[in-house]
User: Fold these one by one.
Assistant:
Number 1:
Amino acid sequence: MNGDISLEIMGPIFTAVSGDVSLALKVLELKPEAIVLDVGTGAAQCALSLALQGVDVVTGEPATDTSIYAGKDWYDKAKRLGVAERITFQPFAAHDMPFPERSFDAVFFFGVLHHIDEVQRQAVFHEAFRVIKPGGPMVFFEPKAKTLEVVRRSDPGHPDAANPEEYTQGFGTRVDKITGQMMHISIFRNIA
Ligand SMILES: C[S@@+](CC[C@H](N)C(=O)[O-])C[C@H]1O[C@@H](n2cnc3c(N)ncnc32)[C@H](O)[C@@H]1O
């Protein structure tokens, strides 16, 4: 897919999103038939970026979410970009996922953890580790300070970034960190 076309369809921020997603994919080295769970669909910037980079994606968000970040009309963009068949949408809440154990090669949270109630975040880690294949990566993208500053111009009440490491106690994880253009990226693997 021509980069200019995806930019035209997705808007200027998509270049930075895709760059950050690509940084993570380079570290993960997923196999070609890998399926990634993308938690928190939103505008599907992450899901579309993954799909455009050749990854099959299952994505979802709570059906009950009435915030400005949910229920976005992204499917038409997926069709125009030619990747609709790579993306499956299913509504779900991250602390109670409707998937069997070991369903996914990786689980991505792009700009999502800080939108999840703090009391649910540890349960979210449990669920994500349950649905990932053994040793598979869980990848959190949380906004850098400059990114938050930009987001708050249109959404002044936007929550602070979350620190995923606060919720990993007792999991036996290894974490690798990357600084992206717009996000801090933390890659967790269960080594217990
Ligand atoms: C800012 S959007 C994320 C951006 C999106 N990942 C993208 O690439 O465009 C925040 C998302 O988190 C989702 N969300 C909030 N609470 C959630 C929860 N408990 N479980 C799953 N998703 C949740 C919202 O519904 C929304 O889709």
Note: The chain has one domain: 3-190.
Number 2:
Amino acid sequence: MEYRNLGRTGIRVSRLCFGLLTIGPLQANLPLAEGVDVLKYAVEQGVNFFDTAEIYESYSYLRGMLRSFPGRELIISTKSYAVTAKEMEQSLERARRELDRDYIDIFLLHEQESALTIRGHRAALDYLLEAKKKGLVRAVGISTHRIAGVRGALELPEIDVIHPLFNIKGLGIQDGTLQEMEEVLTEAAAAGKGIYLMKALGGGNLLPQAREALDYAFSRPFAAAVAVGMKARWEVDINVLAAQGQPIPDQLEKLMGSEKRRLRIDPWCEGCGKCAEQCPQEALFLGDDGKAHVREEECLLCGYCAAACPFFYIKVY
Ligand code: SF4
Ligand code: SF4
């Protein structure tokens, strides 16, 4: 496994970052022992970088994995929607408690749309910066699906890390082209920001061309790492090979290409609209029948709507 410096954070990360969204309750909902096993297997293959979020409800898997490797430097990045200092304090304390760790390596403001959104989260960001001074956090940053979000982070020297949506087709970039995203990320990397990508497989939509999509993401010079969701050992094997630029055995590639994931909305949906408000892609709408429906071509299968539904009527499977 190759390791790179994450910008100027002083943190060295494996090129393959294990994305925790997939194994948690918003998606595969693996039993704890099974999820921990996949994570431990990834560590044994050289992965040292793990991306999660408060909304993913996956700290227990990480804690199980961390306990198996005492003393090993494993990098955890998490994120929260906190707006106020108090909310961010609660998010940070929850992460430290549930991960059983004194500090969190990287803490991000989740889904920042622009400089304006970041300004709206200033109190939470300032809390993180204070926590960094106290050694409770090593680096702070944002995650974003937008070019304007990257630009907003670029304006702020105190932002260490950017976690942007990026894939070979530009799927999910909400405010411009793939080329524009590539240009601003190149600028951000040159300014010393640590960049690791998300949605290299378009939330599963690019699985039929997974090899090409992974090659593209791992060959971007501005990206220190690429976060990929994994839920089985064979997926770890594929992504480790892709991260190293090595050929993937046909059998494994076929297995990956045959994976088809979908969003399911239960027919007893009550039409409250909370899921649509949460969707970063504007892929959900309330139909004439008063129920939520998805525009599949817009959906990145992120599962955020599932977390927003008060009745648990949405699943990604
Ligand atoms: S519909 Fe749900 S899973 Fe699809 S992009 Fe929107 S929030 Fe994510
Ligand atoms: S949040 Fe749940 S109940 Fe409300 S519209 Fe969405 S699926 Fe239906």
Note: Residues 263-316 form a domain with the Alpha-Beta Plaits fold (CATH 3.30.70.20).
Number 3:
Amino acid sequence: MSAIIVERLVKSFGKLIAVNEASFTVDEGELFGFLGPNGAGKTTTINILTTLLIPSSGKAVVGGFDVVAEAEKVRRIIGLVPQDITVDDDLTGMENLMLHAGLYHLDRQGAKRRAKEVLELLNLTDAANRKVETYSGGMRKRLELAAGLMHHPDILFLDEPTLGLDVQTRTAIWNYVKKLRDELGMTIFLTTHYMDEADALCDRIAIIDHGRIVAIDTPKSLKNSLGGDIIELEVMHNNPEDVVQLINKIDSVKKAAFMDGLFRVTVERGEETLPMMLETLLRKGHRVTRVIMKKPSLEEVFLEYTGRALRAEQGSWEEAFRQRMIIQRARA
Ligand SMILES: Nc1ncnc2c1ncn2[C@@H]1O[C@H](COP(=O)(O)OP(=O)(O)OP(=O)(O)O)[C@@H](O)[C@H]1O
Ligand SMILES: [Mg+2]
């Protein structure tokens, strides 16, 4: 059975279409990733699936319940770890979890037992009675994850679970997320704009850009769909078309295009094709000033499907600014 079914989902804010005819399904027990740049529509989609927003049109069913008509039932079986910081600095870890349990009307005794369990699961037992203001960023994120698990959700939604964390902490969070799927069989829907994260963690990935889903598959199939290695060249030229034509004549070249000042070439057996390509270009008097060879990664997949690069640094300034605003608001 599908844990999540989304059919032609649309959400517009005035003229802006944040989610544009999105359709996909997530299997039970699957770890499904929503990968896209800032403003792609990831949080909007999560907010609809978790009943925080009403769709403009289309349909979404979560755990067998319609997110609009049966919102209350959906809420009972899902957990949400939102993108913005939600734990209270002035409370201890345990107090935060008990507060959260109150929102779900868990009885006090049961809640206490459960809080101990989830704190143990996320390795926070020793910090349980410390105020959250003394926690590191990674500990906070783990506490938020713990809060999302308090009421034993079947389906867990994680919006950018590792945003702004250092590499080591991100890896630790991934391991906890994997554990939830592997040991508890939880269905997990997460959003991210870290491609390595999506690649290493997710069973399947949907790539979303400007509210549209442009590709859905396993990370492996997405990478294979590019059909070879990627060579990027910076070449002195008068007319890019001439260079593209020249490169395309080489047998093992599958595709060549000029993008953002670079020639992007998809080839079979990059190691063998590259010297041939350089020789061909040089013979025609084109000086090659830079060469990069890449094995296909999700970065290349993203570029292929959207025509734009998705780099983590792309959103970093905006992200840092937003995080600062959240912290300021929390302090006020
Ligand atoms: N309440 C709202 N009112 C108006 N526009 C909105 C609202 N919420 C989101 N948007 C717009 O919808 C688009 C999608 O936003 P969304 O937050 O879903 O993106 P995202 O993929 O989560 O981005 P990020 O990676 O920055 O979190 C953006 O252009 C955003 O400005
Ligand atoms: Mg978002």
Note: Residues 42-43, 83, 159 surround magnesium ion (ligand 2) (CB under 6 Å).
